[in-house]
Amino acid sequence: MSFRSILFKQVERLPKEEYLVPPPFFVDLNLDQVVESITAGKNEYNLKPFFYVPLNDIDEIEYRHEIFRDLENEKLLEIIKSFARSFQKKRDHLATANKLYYKLQKEAWFLDAVDIYCKALLDLAQGLSHLDLKSRGFLGFREYLANYVSSTSFDQLLSETEQIKSNLSTVKYTLFIAENTIKVGKYEPQRDYSEEVNRTFEKFKQGAVKNYLVDFPNRMSMNHIEERILEIVTSLYPEIFSRLDHYFTQNENYLDPIIAAFDREVQFYIASIEYVERFTQTGLKFCYPKISDSSKEVFDYEGFDLALAHQFLVGDSSVVCNDFHLEGKERILVISGPNQGGKTTFARTFGQLHYMACLGCLVPGRKAQLFLFDKLFTHFENEENIKNLRGKLQDDLVRIYEILREATPNSIIIMNEIFTSTTLKDAIYLSKKIMERIVELDLLCVCVTFLDEISKFGETTVSMVSTVAPENPALRTYKIVRKPADGISHAISIVEKYHLTFDNLQERLNL
Amino acid sequence: MKTYLMYPDQDFNPQQEPPWNERELIQDLELNTLFKTMSSGDAFLLNVIKRALLNSQVDLNVIAYRQAVLKDCIKHAAIIREMYALTVNAIAKEKEEYWGIFGKYPPATLSRAVKVMRIFIEALKRLRSIADEQGETFVSSGFTKFFSMLKQELSDEYFSEMEEHLLELQSHDTVLISAELGKGNIGTNYVLHTMQQKKRSWIERFINFESSEYTIVISNQDNAGATALSELRDRGINLVANALAQSCDHILSFFKMLQTELAFYMACLNLHDQLLSQGEPICFPVPAPADERALTFSGLYDVCLALGLKQKVASNDLDANGKCLFIITGANQGGKSTFLRSIGVSQLMMQCGMFVPAESFQANIGSQLLTHYRRKEDATMKSGKLDEELNRMNKIVNNMTDNAILLLNESFAATNEREGSEIARQILSALLKKRIKVFFVTHLFEFAHDFYEKSLPDVTFLRAERKTGGKRTFRLVKGEPLQTSFGEDLFDNVFLKGEKN
Question: Any chain B CB within 8 A of the CB of A217?
Fold first, then answer.
């Protein structure tokens, strides 16, 4: 099968882009922030829609993993990045050509744009040919590109472009300016006077000095005097300029659509890789998750919340990583413990991990196995609705009802502090009722709750608790550990904090 | 063109990184007193002397080179002062030259550069004539090279070549420019050509060629056209304006280098004159290689104390070649700290190529000078203070290089004598083993006594002299540490005096 897209094995899977909107749980899981960070600075590619389509096929995920693995080769990554920079430059040139009205200028910018395009493709084809590629995506693309650049039409485009460029670079002329007249003539070799000045004073050279060159702004368009000078110059060199004219009208449709799509789609990978690098530079870990559509034994070690960790990258705070694992019949993680202890963050992490995994991306953590879900549901407290207690409780129940109706055994549900706006007795009662349904569905679920009772619901639930530093209960560790919810343990042990004794210092100074 | 008055083959960098312990050195050795006299209130001199004095030289050749130049300076003080003044003057005039209200544009840059160049040529001519008239009377290799360089580089032909350029560049209304086509077919690479070669026939032909087809005339009403034309001219002279302005800057940096290097010797002259007027001796020291252990001097005094008191002060003699560790004990206010300071300051002065405050002085050079003084202002708990002291000591050890010189003033006294002595014993044994040259002023009798008993060959003991009856001479003599530091003398002195009044 011939190559179509670097993002999809089967292009047909991609729905029409204009219909693509973020999934409903995006805001709850802070995935909107995540995608915003990933795509920041790459607006021209309009990458966001690619992040709105989780893959529902393990082989499609594998197709992307293969490409990510190929891109671990820094040579390939640099080749792709430099290709992207060239295409960016090409687009800028065309934009300029479109803005200009003076024909000789438009033509020159167009010529440069096509030149950049040709060189970029040759470089890319050349660069790829030396590499040991493994992914179906890159192998297919390499073949497509090799065929394209060896075609006659490409060859003609390239050689005509180069010839005209080299002809233009030979154009030189002389100006004699006196009072209000300018004389234009062909160039005769002459010495640069500034070099003579430099030669005279060279002996004083001590090192780098200030640059007094005035940076005349690189104007895109000419003034009328420059236009008149250029008219005279064209009459000095008529053949060169008529050839340029012809070239401009002949090569309007130079751009290949599949290559254009590749330029955009490959940025999905580049953006993801650059995003991941920001974390790995600080020592955080990412891995290729193993994805299963049958086993619900999921785990992730040293995972973290992408959105939160990204905020910490700028500050000094260090990111707290957490582990989880479900085995055997375990399906439901019940998170309890002190407030502000990282419970919500943990729940988000669980959701983010699964979502990113189903995009075919790398996920936070040292090692991960995750589930290929069909649908993901979140229920997070909505603060805007707190005004009316009864209304809120009812809203909650309606929403949960809808979730449970749509959910299948292959879905994931993340519930964050439901029923906070009712009495304890009600909350326990309602929660139990809902838990029964969830258990019955046998789906993966994370439930953040202040109710200890929920954590002991049955053999499918696992209790995890946010913890505090033992010597100082006011200090949160943001560690969520697997242990029974036994209320908050305030066992305080006091440790020796000062080790700077006389003996210690003496030891340090002993040479 | 290089001045090379500070190094035989290298510029002096007044912006060089200060040593990590600069603050401590200045505070402990009270160098500000010295700086004040040497700079006589001039911020420029102050910066140069700070860098020269604190960034010690370890190369004996460099020290000898500067000593020779300084001797020339002392002999020809008036000429040095004149050269310094004309340099400062040229730099100041350059600064005054107006940049114009239009900011950065080539004609303004060029006009200013022409004016500045005339100022510089004036100053260079004066330097050349000093070289012609006085060059012969200097003997140091630094000045000999400097003057012959001036004569060689600044020949009469060279001055007329510079002036020719200024003549051609002072007016730039009519210009001959060449250009190429750049991005988007816009003219680029505008280059100015000299018009003085009019004899070349094609220029003649081109300029006199009358053809409306190749000539653009801008009408009087066409303001935009006039602007465009003057911009073309500006682009044309851009390169040459830059070239001349940068040449000015190069000459300016030559003058700045000359000012900087002369500033060091000017500062030395200031100190020289002041000490001479107080009747204090100076001598040029004899430095020994860093891996030797040498220290022999006579009439060594604390220059900062002398400058502060503006009178002759007590001095010391010592013959202690081969010694590594100097343990200094004895009476309070007996001149121990003054002695320690005189050692440190003289070491720094020697290692920047200066004379030293002594009748004679010989010492090995140190890879660096380190000080560890008791910080009296720290009024925290005793343990906190010891902590602070040992932390500083740790930092010193971290930064220590082979053949460093270390001055310890009442270190490790922030605890009882037994503990302090034990710390001192351990640290100093290690330093001695590493052959670090250490001067240790201490009241830790147990430590000092212990070391004295060992009678190690490379350790010497100095004691503040105390005449019978408690009279102090502020001199140090070789001698065994004594149990008391004569605190009672001091007590008596203070209290009895107080009671008498």
Answer: no
